[in-house]
Amino acid sequence: MAASRAIRLRRAAPSVQSTSAVLGLAAARARKSPERLDYEAALEVQSAGQQELQERQMRRESMIDKSTLPSLSKYMRPGEKASEPLLAEDALTARQLPEQPDAGPSSVRMAARTAPKATNIPPLPPSSATPAKPSRKGKERALPPPLEAYDAAPPQSQPQTISKDNPAVSARALARAMARANARRKLPSLTDRPPAAVASLSSKPVGGAAGPRRNPVGVQLLSEHMHNQVFPGAPLPTPPDALLDISKWHLGQHGLSGDGAAVLPEISLDLPPLEGRNVRDHFHALGTYASEPYLSAAKEFAAAELPPIPQHWEMSRPGWTRYGRDGSVTPVENLDGETVVSFDVETLYKLSPYPVLATAATPNAWYSWLSPSIFDTPPEDEPPKREPWDKSTVDCYPHTLIPLFKNNGPAIVVSHNVGYDRARVAEEYALERTPTRFLDTLSLHVATRGITSVQRPAWMKHRKTRIEYESNTAESIAMLREHAEDTGDNWLSESLREYSTDDDTPGSNWEDTTSLNSLAEVAALHCGVKVDKSTRQRFADETVRHASQLRPELDKLLDYCAEDVKVTHDVYKVVLPLFLTSCPHPATFAGVLAMGNSFLPVDRSWVDYLRKAEAMYLELREEVRLALRSLADRLREAGPIANDPWHSQLDWSPKSARWADGASHKTKEAAPEAEVPAWYGPAAVDRTALLNNQSKRSLLPLLMRMRYRGYPVFYLTEHLWCFKAPIEDIPELIPLHGAPVELSPKDDRLADHLETSVFFRVVGPGTARRSQLLSKAGAKDVRSGLLTTEYPDILAAAVKGELDDKLDVLAKCAQDMLASGGENDWGSQLDWVPTVPGAAEKRKKEQAERGTWPKWYWDLTVPVTNKKVLAGELDLTMRKTVAPLLLRMQWHGYPLAYSKEHKWVYRVPLADVSNDPESSLYADKRVVLSDAGDKRLADDAYAYFRLPHKDGEGNSVGNPLSKAFLRALEKGELSSALATDSDKQLAEAASKAVNMNTLCSYWISSRERIMNQFVVYNGERGMILPKVITMGTVTRRAVEATWLTASNAKKNRVGSELKSMIRAPPGYAIVGADVDSEELWISSVMGDSQFGVHGATAIGWMTLEGTKSAGTDLHSKTATILKISRDAAKVFNYSRIYGAGKPHAIQLLLQGDGKLTRQAADQLATDLYKQTKGRKTFGPPDRHGTRYLWHGGSESYLFNTLESIALMDRPTTPALGCGVTRALRKSFLGLGNSYLPSRINWVVQSSGVDYLHLLITAMEYLIAKYDINARYLISVHDEVRYLATEEDKLRTALALQIANVWTRALFCYNLGFDDMPQGIAFFSAVDVDHVLRKETDMSCVTPSNPDAIAPGESLDIDALLIRCPSLGESRLPPLPRVDGGATPVNIFGNKMLASHQRYVTAQADTRTSPAKAWLVEQANRTWAGEIREQIPQHRAVL
């Protein structure tokens, strides 16, 4: 067919002199795919002009030493010669193509005439393996080898070659050669596609009278009316037809076809006109409008200098005081008149969330603010204790917000973690948004110099090593200085004075370019200053019971607060320019500002929610406690049962009972006068007992309320003297004291402290434990200020060994502790059991009468000091190790066992152990019990296997009743043997205990964060200002501990209705939408950009046109491969797109199916990745590493695109051109630690953040342009919500739809598309609701909320346009026109090049040979480029 067409063309075109040119025209007219023409005949399609161009290029490069270039020899058949390296890029460029808007068949034919290389046959690098054939100009040229030349296995027969003796080759002979070659192998071609896929190959969208506009792969596009508004002006160059051939063959290989694609009604909406020539200019104009005047003011503040911190503060009155540059001190009501301020707030957070003092600074003045509570008289009595859920502030504690601005214009507030400070500003609790915006230096740092959670351990190790090095260096210098002074060595002294231990040289590793997020760490990184945060502990001091106690220290505390303000400004001057350089688009800045104004309206139902959820939790917890108590009592009374797999693990050795059976377990109402706490008993008899060694070692430091580094000291059984610190101080203390210590079972009474605190040894890592604090060894810590107390005189005497003279003072310390009743950190460690001095003999007699208990039961009893458990009750919860044994828990019917070495395992009879590696009971997987504490488990008749851990094999399970095993409990994989016991009482007790774990799992994990929400009420209405970190991760995603992680309401989860407690005030509605498959679409459209056609890749087509019913959407395809549910498949798809590899997929499979073996999971994951990501083929290594290519999978194009961005020297997002943090930049990462999954994840998620910023920026513009009464509420990743008045709720919904159209359009435009699919242009629906929830029809019924919430309404674009056809009349004039600039990131360059076609072809093919050939070609280009750069240097030398 090709030959006959060539003959006819030659007769019709006498000016064409060569058979090769004629065949080239035939190929162009037939529009064959690259694979349809044999590579042996491919060179005949090249014109003589192309050959001359290549030869000229080769002559220019003849001076290059080709021995240094990589060769194809490793991919050739035996006996073949390696090809010459490819030195020049394809000659065809966009400028060489005819300037025609349509790249359809006629333009392709014209291109074939005018530009010989504009062919759809991608030539491989020339090879000398095939005999040369003289051209018509008499020059020898080599034919490229056939594609099989790159296969690993040798071919069955050699291809037919062309003899030198027969220079004249007819078209018929070439056609026969092509037919024979194609018969030998199956090459990709259009005939391989499903019939429906063989549509018109033209790249022009089709539509009109025949139906909606569709592109060549069947994706429905915007209507003509919408398209002309969104993509005005001249069209972008259309992709060559060769790319469409490859796309359609690729889609057919994955069973995808345009037949049956959904037909959506065309939308003809009149959009607001673009504010520019195109959508790129449009968004630049919108970003400039939304970010000003704040952006200009922010830049000016970064260049400004603050006045000096005042030497003296006004401390005699509450409110604001201004300190001018001229020394004036003036009381002011607020900061009106200032445009940008650096701001910091301090609170007595253990008393009240309201502020107690604040400072602020501007280029003009300093300001200080004091709470009125500081000047109040403290009450005589402590406020009464309240219910845990009652978080209302007591009047005697601080309860005043800060008036920052009142009648001010636009202003910016700068702070570190500014969301915390914003929540203390009075004006922010109004429904109407103020003109004040908040800028967070923490967010600016994270976006430019932050690190991922994966990098954190390596960074911590690096910092520890650096600190040790600096410490050793400092010690060495100190020794040298001492030596110089002793010897009088002036030269050495002068050298040491010039020497600096601070290395000012910027680090070349990523560890040296980043830090953690605290102000101290960030200041050290960016400014090289050390921030002293020790004063902060005063605001957390439990001895401060009223704000007035701070009055004598106000000068020091205001200095501390002001220093934070100054340091924050110093950091701001560095990080703002970094951020604006990394994220230059004004829409990014505008989006960040808007997100900093989030708010959540509530009403009095919030208090009811807390009360009901907490009450139900406490009720269920009590039921579980009673159920477990019943099981424990019955087991104790029954005694050990022979060969019982659970009870045999308990320690049945006798211990003296704490009380007699049948005795009352209630606390005594009043103790006799003679009774004293047990710790005071010896001193009550003889005061000198306070001076004995036992008291010095473990009692006196507690009576003296000693602190180490400002933290209260604790005496732990295993670690001896330690101190308790808040969790947030861990990063600062680890380098000094090593990792936090774990509590031993004997210290279980202190377990409650672990909810908010950790324990460190008072000594450094690698140092012996400290058994005494009051000794001469502690003198050094006393002198250095590390060890402090409220009784400094006693401490000084103790370290000198002179305590005998302080007996009276010690006795007073003991009396003070008695008066406190143990209500502090020190007293809680003492034994408060009432005892009669000298009654030890009486107690022994009573103990003998009470009898004994088994030790496991005795260990569950608690001292009277435990305030959460009544005296005489058991401290028995689901977290105790004994709980699963009492409940007789089993895994797939096998009893659980607790191993000291391996934690929770399950016992299997040897008869059930399998030799099949595919079995979960494979013999090689059993654990070996080598610990001495596991002797009671040893039994030759059984084997033990680890419980499956969520983090994969080899990890030990600490608690089988934890949240990680909820699914296993619901599926019955983990169950209680008692649940089916014939004893109904036992069965009921076991069921209650297990069910409570499921019901309360959400509330247990979230209750502290939820109950500590800072709610400010104004009458019946209240408001929460969530402490959002607008860019809290390196991907610039927002972070907030409660609301951005809140789950949806579930029927079997107490308190899970949390989100529905956010309620619109009367007259308002919550309007919002979820971006449909946001990050999946972003990823897939990046892959489609290789073709310039929406849906050209399998993943792109499935995202746009795949349906659940037909099983052609991505989640259905994955579910079929893995044999799991479609919902479960979503987790695999998103984690894979975020860069997770096969090990993560194996881990997810093992978590989802406890019976699945690792081998079976590995095979499923392998199949999944083979069909999705495809094969991974490596090319020749070079100095940059080894290139590779994904090919043959449905997502190969996607991952090659994502990785091509991630591996750039300075990766940027395609939409807004935002750069990656330096810790993930290629130039700072070593070859062995590239963190590629994190970088791929950055490309996807950071683009998703771009999407959100663009959407918010467009909404800011539309709200202002059409005077819509709405404001930004909150966003959760791909969800965005606004609060609008009832009158404007539909206009807000329509504005969201228009903003979405523009946002999608910018993504498309910047990726090389000038059209957009209809299916993704609009939100599938916009929700108009009166509460915050995922879906408007969710009833939000939970165990704590039995009443269903009335549904809202969900409007698609058609229903919305019926009720609100337009936004109304514009109130803004056209914006100033700005140039949007070039595309933020050019991923693939010119798609018209034949090299790009070869690249696309290699990705579609499942065989390795095309991928290897392309990789070798790229390696040759790299080497040639490097050598070409060296030519001028060599010429200069010559």
TrEMBL record:
<dbReference type="Pfam" id="PF18136">
    <property type="entry name" value="DNApol_Exo"/>
</dbReference>
<protein>
    <recommendedName>
        <fullName>Mitochondrial DNA polymerase catalytic subunit</fullName>
    </recommendedName>
</protein>
<dbReference type="Pfam" id="PF00476">
    <property type="entry name" value="DNA_pol_A"/>
</dbReference>
<feature type="domain" description="DNA-directed DNA polymerase family A palm">
    <location>
        <begin position="1055"/>
        <end position="1288"/>
    </location>
</feature>
<dbReference type="InterPro" id="IPR001098">
    <property type="entry name" value="DNA-dir_DNA_pol_A_palm_dom"/>
</dbReference>
<dbReference type="InterPro" id="IPR043502">
    <property type="entry name" value="DNA/RNA_pol_sf"/>
</dbReference>
<feature type="compositionally biased region" description="Basic and acidic residues">
    <location>
        <begin position="53"/>
        <end position="64"/>
    </location>
</feature>
<dbReference type="GO" id="GO:0003887">
    <property type="term" value="F:DNA-directed DNA polymerase activity"/>
</dbReference>
<feature type="region of interest" description="Disordered">
    <location>
        <begin position="46"/>
        <end position="212"/>
    </location>
</feature>
<dbReference type="InterPro" id="IPR012337">
    <property type="entry name" value="RNaseH-like_sf"/>
</dbReference>
<dbReference type="InterPro" id="IPR041336">
    <property type="entry name" value="DNApol_Exo"/>
</dbReference>
<dbReference type="GO" id="GO:0006264">
    <property type="term" value="P:mitochondrial DNA replication"/>
</dbReference>
<dbReference type="GO" id="GO:0003677">
    <property type="term" value="F:DNA binding"/>
</dbReference>
<dbReference type="GO" id="GO:0008408">
    <property type="term" value="F:3'-5' exonuclease activity"/>
</dbReference>
<dbReference type="InterPro" id="IPR002297">
    <property type="entry name" value="DNA-dir_DNA_pol_A_mt"/>
</dbReference>
<feature type="compositionally biased region" description="Low complexity">
    <location>
        <begin position="168"/>
        <end position="181"/>
    </location>
</feature>
<dbReference type="GO" id="GO:0005760">
    <property type="term" value="C:gamma DNA polymerase complex"/>
</dbReference>
